[in-house]
């Protein structure tokens, strides 16, 4: 009776470790691996928002992103910095970036030819 309790405890402790090991049959060299091995799903990549990029690039945390800060932390803004900085302050804010993006979107939409409807026939 004194031996039963320690053996039961040992069996309970060994069960999770056994469940985590690969079965011997799968690692056997005699068994052929299937040709279409299941690949793990790719990890989801977090796409940063404009606010996250701005906050990360704005190292002074003053709400003003300078060209030097943009070159290091927000290269897409750095490429168009002079266009975005319409007031020529030497810095851009999140509102400046949003306004520029909206204006660029509006320009692209205006440049599209109007949609034509096919003739009924």
What does this structure look like?
By secondary structure, the chain is mainly alpha-helical. The chain has a domain at 50-111: Recoverin, domain 1 (Orthogonal Bundle). It has helices spanning 4-20, 50-57, 67-73, 75-79, 81-84, 94-111; strands spanning 65-66, 91-92. The chain has a two-stranded antiparallel sheet. Helix 2 (50-57) crosses helix 3 (67-73). The longest helix is centred in the C-terminal third of the chain and has 18 residues, at 94-111.
- CATH topology (level 3) name of the domain at 50-111: Recoverin, domain 1
How many strand units? 2
What are the low-pLDDT stretches, counting only 5+ consecutive residues below 50? Answer: none
Strand content: under 5%
CATH architecture of the domain at 50-111: Orthogonal Bundle
- The level-1 CATH class of the domain at 50-111: Mainly Alpha
- The shape is elongated
Helical percent range? Answer: 40-55%
Global structural class: mainly alpha
Mean pLDDT: 80
| Major sheet attributes | 2 strands, antiparallel
Q: What gyration radius follows from the Cα positions, in whole Å?
A: 30 Å
Topology pattern, helix = H, strand = E:
HHEHHHEH
- Please tally the helical runs, counting DSSP H or I stretches of 4 or more residues: 6
Q: Going across the major beta sheet, what is the strand order?
A: 1-2
């Amino acid at each position: 009776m004194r031996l039963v309790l320690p053996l039961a405890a040992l069996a309970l402790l060994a069960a999770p470790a056994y469940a985590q090991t690969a079965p011997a049959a799968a690692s056997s060299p005699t068994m052929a691996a299937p040709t279409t091995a299941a690949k793990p799903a790719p990890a989801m990549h977090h796409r940063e928002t404009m606010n996250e990029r701005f906050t990360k690039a704005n190292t002074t945390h003053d709400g003003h992103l300078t060209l030097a800060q943009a070159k290091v932390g927000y290269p897409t803004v750095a490429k168009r910095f002079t266009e975005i900085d319409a007031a020529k302050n030497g810095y851009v804010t999140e509102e400046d970036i949003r306004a520029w993006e909206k204006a660029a979107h509006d320009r692209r939409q205006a440049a599209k030819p109007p949609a034509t409807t096919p003739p009924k026939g």
